[in-house]
Each structure stands twice: as structure tokens, then as C-alpha cells.
Amino acid sequence: MGRQMTEMLKGTLEGIVLAILAMRPAYGYEITAWLRGQGFADIAEGTVYALLVRIEQKRLVDVQKVPSEKGPPRKVYTINAQGREYLEEFWRTWSFLAERLEQLHEGADKNV
Questions:
Q1: Residue 110 pLDDT more than 70?
Q2: CATH number of the domain that 96 lies in?
């Protein structure tokens, strides 16, 4: 992943993780594996775990400790009502930005 992609991902990863959790509850490794499966091969587990701590502190998710077959219990994250509101705002913002960027892109193509 190039530097520009990494920087853009930093700004959107919180919304992406909340969108994943809106589909179903998950624990950190599952989220990382899903992201990697979607082409974000260079994403570090530590990045995802740090983000999960932040969204937990912001009270955007509920956390349940679930016994694990290997090692300590896993923290399973579930998006809550506050997290859903935050995610809705994320999608509104994303749509606004995507529309404006597309307009810029189309305008740039016409001037080439």
C-alpha cells in the first residue's frame, strides 16, 4: 500500500470498522482478516486494536468478553446506538466528499 493510501485510510478506518461491526459483531483479529481479504493487505493488527480501544472509549461500541479456545477471552465488539449515529454521519460525510471529488476529477479530465 502506498503512502497516500495509508494516509487516506487513517482518516476513514474508524468509519470502515464501524461499518464492519454494523454487519455483525466481531473481535479484532476477525476485523483485521476481513480488511486484508478486501485488499488492505498491509494493515497492521496493532492499528486495528488501537482503533478499537478508541471507539470503545468514545462509547460507540459495546464489548463482551467471550471465552477463547486458545488463550485469554476475546473482546467481541458490537456497534451500539451511538455508534450507528456516528456511522450514519460518516456515510453522509463520505457521500459529500465523494461527490465533490468526482466533480473535481471530471473537471480535471475535461481540461486535459
A1: no
A2: 1.10.10.10
